[in-house]
Structure formats: C-alpha cells, structure tokens
Specification:
alpha/beta; TIM Barrel; 8-stranded parallel β-sheet; 12 helices; about 20% strand; globular; binds N-carbamoyl-L-aspartate; binds zinc ion
Length: about 400
Amino acid sequence: MHSMRASPSPSPSLKLPFPSNLASISSSHGRRSLRLSSSTGAVFAQMESTITITRPDDWHLHLRDGDLLQSVLPHSAKQFGRAIVMPNLKPPITTTAKALAYRESILKALPTDTDFSPLMTLYLTDNTTPEEVRLARNSGAVFAVKLYPAGATTNSQDGVTDIFGKCLPVLEEMVKLEMPLLVHGEVTDPSVDTFDREKVFIETILTPLVEKLPSLKIVMEHITTADAVNFIESCKTGNIAATVTPQHMLLNRNSLFQGGLQPHNYCLPILKRETHRRAIVEAVTSGSTKYFLGTDSAPHDKKRKECSCGCAGIYSAPLALSLYAKVFEEAGALDKLEAFTSFNGPDFYGLPRNTSKIVMRKSPWKVPETYSYASGVIVPMFAGETVEWLVCEE
Ligand SMILES: NC(=O)N[C@@H](CC(=O)O)C(=O)O
Ligand SMILES: [Zn+2]
Ligand SMILES: [Zn+2]
C-alpha cells in the first residue's frame, strides 16, 4: 500500500498558547480549565488547551480511486468515523453495483487500525431510474444521490441536463425512500457570471424544486454565499440542510489572486467576497442544526493544478479539523464545534452519532508543502503554513 508521505514532516511545537478569546475564563485555582456544555446537552471538557469531542464525520469527501485513494484515505480514516463519498469518478458511480464495488476498493485500501465507514452515493444522470435508487437504498450501503448539473464541476459531464424534465420520477421515489439529494448548487449557463452561479441556482432550480417536492431531503453542498444561508434559513421544515467547507469559512476571493494567481485556492463553487464568508461563519457558529461538516477535500495531482487549465478542488483532509476549530474559536463558539462536526450530520441522515472521541490540542504544526503518492504529489490547503490545533488522539 502506498501511504501518503508528508514532506517535510509536520513539526509539532512544544508551545501551547491558550486560545485568546477564552483567556478571561479561569478557575479558582487560576488554571485555565473549563467544562463547556454544548447546545445539545452533551458535555465536553476543555482543559488547558485541549478539546475532546465526539468523533466527527465528513459529509462531503472525494476519495478518488487507484493510487490517489490509497494515499489520501488514511488522512480521513484516522480522524473521521464516516464519510459520504462523492461519486464523481471517471467513469462516475451511476449504479448500485458500481457503488458497492467502489466501497470494496475503499475498504481494501483502509489502514487496519481504523473502523472508518465509507457511506456511498449514486451519481444522478438523466437516465437514472427509480428502480436503481430503490436498489441503492435496499443495499444498505448507499446513503444519498448526488446531483451534478452537467458541466458544473470536476467530472460532471455525465450529470443532469434538465432536472425537472428528466429526473422527477427518480426524485419522487427518493421522497418515498427518504433518500437525501445532495446538490452541487451552481447553474452552468455560460452567460451567468461565475460568482453568481450559486445564487441563480437557488432562484431557478432549488426554490422550484422545494416547492414541487417539499418533503424531499436536500443537502445543499459546500455553500458559499449569504444567499445560500438565507435560503437554508428560510426552509422551516427540517429536511433542508447544508455542508460547509473550511475554505469557504476561512478564505474570500482575494485569496485567488494574492501576490499572483493561486491555483491551490481554486475550487468550485468559487470563493466569494468577504461579506459572504462572514454570513456563512455567522450562520454555522450560531449553533443552528442545519449546517454540518463537509470538507469537500478534493485532491488533484500538483501538475493538474499548476498548469494552463487547472482543475478545481482543494485538498484539505489532513488539516480540516484544525481549520474548523480555528473558525469556531475565532467566533468565540468552541462550545458549538461538536454539534457541527459530530451531531448535526448523523441526525440529518438518521444515523447514530459516533460513540468514540477525539482529542484536539493547541499545538502549532506546519502543514507539509506536499504529500507524495505513487504517481506524484498533492499540494494541500495552506501548504507550508502553520495551523494551531492538532488532532492528537485519534
Ligand atoms: N469542489 C471542487 O472544486 N472540486 C470537486 C468537485 C465538486 O465538489 O464540485 C472535485 O471533485 O475535484
Ligand atoms: Zn461540488
Ligand atoms: Zn465536492
């Protein structure tokens, strides 16, 4: 097995600075320790600079296949209990049989010391049948159907061209099966400005879809705009939720051009302006149960990112949890982190929450410049930069 080697290796520092926004809280012994009670009633301890939370799941992950799968999988499997595995392989995972075969290849590539579970998805096309979706549900291994508007993103060319014209029977079946539809929410009309594609999708596809099928479970994946937040908030029925990536909470569109073109910050939907980033952070750290962790970690070989027509996708799996902790810490909302990482997702999907825990410590470490795999290298998000939180007991 090719496991992914970091180069240079992370260098945990011995310094353990205390989170600045919590510095005013100290016990009668003058030691910085506190117990925080999350909004759902679960209690976790924060002693010195550590956080113990229920093991998180990743509700939007690209594991790829072949060499890349072998190398990226351990990063997710070490930290997360489960992941919703995206089906946009080449060729895409359009049938239950393909999903089961893909699941087997993931299980084969898993390190022996984890009980990580891949939750499979079906790639919706114009030709997907209700029978196929029933088969998927009955398999017990497929947990959602993914809508890629044809041409919207990486490997979406076989996606849906006309959801209302072609997919209604399938969607009606999904309502009956309580099978969630996961949505890449961007229109593909080339006349629509790239930065407006999510907003226009909400207006022209998502809103009419919810009107037509009000009880369909929908996850709007990787939301990027205040418009998406407003849409999610406006849905009062509990069957519409959203995943949020670290990049859309930490970066705005300036990061695409800082000091020159930055291909490793290029993902879809594209980063938006600061006002949108703030709206997302505010919604997610408010404690609403409608948002949950979905890294959209999307590895591409360095050569395919740094070229004249680079791929969209940011590789964040090794550091995503550190980044989410940073966002919640900076918002003064560390007590709400656990619900976002570990409760809201399984609750939405109707799955049990994980029972094991992970421990994160304030222990700055340097993100490797690259991770190597059998056929090349991958440049992670924030390559070469220092992040503060370290997942230390996995
Ligand atoms: N997010 C991305 O920029 N890329 C994803 C596809 C996707 O999730 O849209 C990928 O598969 O590379
Ligand atoms: Zn997408
Ligand atoms: Zn994705």
